[in-house]
């Protein structure tokens, strides 16, 4: 059964708009190897966005780890990639629904923590 676009306006703003950010296939998760191999280090890898659920930040954190390992600790380029991928994951997980603002706040908190440790 086909449904016309816009037939359910009450669903607007809740669709998943962005692509999921996966963990790169060549990422090595091994906390014994240091901070570039442990996803989000001291922060939750899948933080809870109350009361809506969890967002999976392992992909953005793994991409950031790999970028920094390849190009130097706390580079602005890697941090900006991290920022963009965290917000993309919020967009994928929550779309523009009510959890999006709290998720973006968590993403900004992670980004600010990364920038302040450099």
Automatic annotation (TrEMBL):
InterPro entries: PLipase_A2_dom_sf (IPR036444)
Gene3D superfamilies: Phospholipase A2 domain
Organism in which the protein naturally occurs: Amycolatopsis thailandensis
Domain of life: Bacteria
Any one biological process term the GO annotation gives: phospholipid metabolic process
Protein name as catalogued: Phospholipase
Keywords of the record: Signal
GO molecular function: phospholipase A2 activity
Signal sequence segment: 1-17
């Amino acid at each position: 059964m086909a449904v016309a676009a816009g037939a359910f306006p009450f669903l607007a703003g809740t669709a998943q708009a962005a692509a999921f950010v996966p963990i790169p296939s060549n990422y090595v998760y091994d906390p014994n190897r240091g901070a570039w191999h442990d996803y989000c280090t001291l922060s939750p890898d899948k933080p809870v966005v109350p009361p809506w659920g969890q967002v999976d930040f392992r992909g953005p954190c793994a991409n950031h780890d790999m970028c920094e390992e390849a190009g130097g600790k706390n580079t602005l380029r890697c941090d900006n990639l991290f920022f963009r991928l965290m917000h993309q994951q919020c967009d994928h997980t929550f779309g523009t629904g009510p959890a999006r603002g709290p998720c973006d706040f968590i993403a900004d908190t992670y980004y600010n923590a990364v920038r302040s440790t450099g």
